[in-house]
Amino acid sequence: xxxxxxxxxxxxxxxxxxxxxxxxxxxxxxxxxxxxxxxxxxxxxxxxxxxxxxxxxxxxxxxxxxxxxxxxxxxxxxxxxxxxxxxxxxxxxxxxxxxxxxxxxxxxxxxxxxxxxxxxxxxxxxxxxxxxxxxxxxxxxxxxxxxxxxxxxxxxxxxxxxxxxxxxxxxxxxxxxxxxxxxxxxxxxxxxxxxxxxxxxxxxxxxxxxxxxxxxxxxxxxxxxxxxxxxxxxxxxxxxxxxxxxxxxxxxxxxxxxxxxxxxxxxxxxxxxxxxxxxxxxxxxx
Length: 286
What we know:
By secondary structure, this protein is α/β, with parallel strands linked by helices. Helix content is 42%, strand content 14%. Strand 5, helix 5 (159-169) and strand 6 (174-179) form a beta-alpha-beta unit. The chain is globular and about 50 Å long.
């Protein structure tokens, strides 16, 4: 098992300013970090790769699509922009030596039609993602698509829908992931969710129900961890928490108040919580 920390708690774009943070995360025991990839080119990420190697940290990445790069748009040019962006993301991942690119890049985040997903929208998304996955194959990169809750998107909001999309894409470099926050909202059971995703599970986000410090809220952590062990999941467990440091992200995730005393608490207590759960000594929750 590898434990990671999503850097969106601090920034939407990592620079040399954040290199001391990488050292702190390494010092408390993280195996790697999850880097936001929201812009730039592969060359821009070379210094970050050098610092990751210096610190002995691996990485995964997270990206999104926007209204201008919406894979389910009826406009072919917009869908091409989605594919072009995902190819750029894959090139960046190759530069970073990343193992997996995660996120809700099945459609534009925060864009709604006023209805549920149509068959045409699902097909458009699958067609774009299939082409991206073939490109990812050349970079030895796994794409792990993320379903969100129904307040953040409408194309993919359940584990069953995520599995359906994986089957539609039908490519070995395209799987899905499990996020405890979204599952807490949309599913009846964390255990059932893990079992549904298990055949195509490639990544896990450890995220509390309020996006704060893992282990302090209402997520059914006992069920989550025990079922991940049951299905023999042995990949990344990455802490994902959001605060108010990034106004655009705070607006997108609807974070209007402080959910933890300091970011330091999130990652220090968060990694301790995960290790206790994995060792069987943890007690949920609070």
